[in-house]
Amino acid sequence: MKIVALSGSIVGSKTKTAMEKVMEMVEQKYPTHDVHLLDLAQYSLEFSDGRNYFEYKGDTKYLTETIMTADALIIGTPIFQASIPGTLKNIFDLLPVDALRDKVASIVVTAGTSRHYLMVEQQLKPILAYMKAHVVPSYVFIEEQDFLRQEIINDDIVFRMERLVEDTVLTVEAFEEIRAKKDAEYDF
Question: Could you tell me the pTM of the whole model?
């Protein structure tokens, strides 16, 4: 199984810290899975201008193709101005509409306050559903107070992240089994 963790911001450290923790959990619990961390701060991406993804070059092409070949996508995003950052929105704009078809997507959010928790429900989940992803219903919402010196210090958050990783992998396995049963119905 190929799992891509996407750190959806080019500034700050909290989202990257959270995604590195997620990666550590995936690698520890599922050592045979192919796991990649895509930290947008480490890449030079072009802005989407309406071209097909395969017409882009360099980092832009690499990121879009890596995302589209994944079985699962764990998206980490901060909340900026009650919304997802433009860098993450640009990734969605670079991808074709059905780029996430049959992929499982789960979400880790970092925020300065709990006031913006509905951003996931009102913005991010609809984008993922529109792109045909199977979205893990629960997500992890991490506030400023849950971090200390670039480390997550809230045990409940760590537990919820472990559960999210497990739910993501189990959801991929469940959908693979469903597709296999459907495919077995055909004789060709």
Answer: 0.94
